[in-house]
Write a structure and sequence with these properties.
By secondary structure, the protein is of the alpha+beta class. It has 2 domains: about 80 residues, Ubiquitin-like (UB roll) (Roll); about 70 residues, DNA polymerase, domain 1. The chain has 6 helices and 5 strands, in the order ββαβββααααα. Strands 2-1-5-3-4 form a 5-stranded mixed beta sheet, with helices on both faces. The longest helix has 19 residues. It starts with a strand and ends with a helix. The structure holds FE2/S2 (inorganic) cluster (2 copies). One FE2/S2 (inorganic) cluster (FES) binds next to loops.
Length: about 160
C-alpha cells in the first residue's frame, strides 16, 4: 500500500513497493497522459514532476516517493488553464505524432520553473528527451518562446 499526493489529491494505492511510479499512475490511478516509452529511464516519455523536478517515472519505485512529495502529471499541469508551455506548443505546432510530447512539456515546464532564461546550451543539455519524429527544432523554439512569455507575464 502506498499513499501518494497526485495533482493535489491524496490517494491510496494497493501496490508492491517496487512497482514503478509510472505503472501506478497509469494502471492504478488511471491517469494515462503520462506515456510509456523505453521503460528504462532513457527516453523521457514518462516524465512527470516530483516536487517540481522533472522525473522519469518508469525508473522510480513507488516506495521512493513519500506522501509529502507533490507529484504532478500533465493532467495536473494544465488543470485550471493551459500552462504557458502547453499554449506555446499548440501555437507553434511543435508535436508531430505527439507520443513523446507530454514528457517534453513536463521536462520543459520544470526547466523553466528553475531557470527562467535558459541558454540554448542549457536547453540542449537539460532536455534530453527522445523524439522519434525529430521535433527538436520546434522544442528549442518552443522553450525560448515560452520563456519570453513567462518573463513578460511576470513583468
Ligand atoms: Fe521512462 Fe522511457 S519510458 S524514460
Ligand atoms: Fe512523435 Fe516526438 S512527436 S515521437
Amino acid at each position: 500500500m502506498a499513499r501518494l499526493n497526485i495533482n493535489g489529491k491524496l490517494l491510496d494505492v494497493d501496490v508492491e513497493e517496487d512497482t514503478p511510479l509510472l505503472w501506478v499512475i497509469r494502471d492504478h490511478v488511471g491517469l494515462t497522459g503520462t506515456k510509456y516509452g523505453c521503460g528504462v529511464g532513457q527516453c523521457g516519455a514518462c516524465t512527470l514532476h516530483v516536487d517540481g523536478v522533472a522525473t522519469r517515472s518508469c525508473a522510480l519505485p513507488v516506495s521512493a516517493v513519500t506522501v509529502d512529495q507533490k507529484i504532478v502529471t500533465i493532467e495536473g499541469l494544465g488543470a485550471d488553464k493551459q500552462h504557458p508551455v502547453q499554449q506555446v506548443w499548440a501555437e507553434l505546432d511543435v508535436a508531430q505524432c505527439g507520443y513523446c510530447q507530454v514528457g517534453m512539456i513536463m521536462a520543459v515546464s520544470s526547466l523553466l520553473a528553475q531557470n527562467a532564461k535558459p541558454s540554448e546550451d542549457d536547453i540542449r543539455s537539460e532536455i534530453s528527451n527522445i523524439c522519434r519524429c525529430g521535433t527538436y527544432p520546434g522544442v528549442l523554439a518552443g522553450v525560448q518562446l515560452a520563456a519570453q512569455r513567462m518573463a513578460a507575464n511576470k513583468g
